[in-house]
Amino acid sequence: MTKEQVLLKMRSHTPFRQAVWKACMAIPAGQTRSYKWIAEQIGRPGAVRAVGSALGKNPFAPIVPCHRVIRSDGNPGGFSAPGGVKAKLKLLKKEKARLPGLLRQA
DNA sequence: CGTATGGCTCCTC
DNA sequence: CGAGGAGCCATAC
Questions:
Q1: CA A86 to CA A105: how far, in whole Å?
Q2: Domains assigned to chain A
Q3: Strand B: which positions are within 7 A of a protein CB?
Q4: pLDDT, tens digit, for every residue of A18-66?
Q5: A63-94 tens-digit pLDDT
Q6: A52 nearest nt, CA–C1'
Q7: Whether A24 is catalytic
Q8: What is the dihedral of CA A56, A61, A63, A67, to 10 degrees?
Q9: Is the CB of A14 under 7 A from strand C?
Q10: Distance of C1' in B12 from CA in A91, Å
């Protein structure tokens, strides 16, 4: 599954989701962004929760790095994908991403 | 088709 | 430090 394939399948979903997912893909590898950051990128600064919903329903788990999206506090937040927050942290550690004030274990 | 409820949140009191 | 409200989208009934 390539990014272009994902972009193509996105068209079957709502434009809002597309924007959210695209913004996620725009995050540099090994780095993290906040939900608010995504919301602002898509032009919906007040739709942080909607962004979370979109990411939670993200059908393109590995292609769209929704795990790079964390809270503004630096907390990992939540993760609906299999493995939960633990998997999220695992992926971030795998990418050598540094979280501001996150538990260094698990 | 319209209404009601939930969500990986954020900000202010 | 803790609790509550706000504003946005998608899904289910």
A1: 10
A2: 3-94 (1.10.10.10)
A3: 6-11
A4: 999 999 999 999 999 999 999 999 999 999 999 999 999 999 988 999 9
A5: 999 999 999 999 999 999 999 999 999 999 99
A6: B8
A7: no
A8: 60
A9: yes
A10: 33
In this prediction, residue A99 carries a pLDDT of 74
Angle at A61 between CA A18 and CA A84, to 5 degrees: 120
Letter string b/e over residues A26-65, b meaning 16 or more CB atoms within 10 A of that residue's CB: ebeeeebbbbbbbbbbbeeeebbebbbebbeebebeebbb
Which residues have CB atoms below 7 Å from chain B, the nucleic strand? A 34-36, 48-50, 52-53, 55-56, 58, 66, 69, 71-73, 77-81
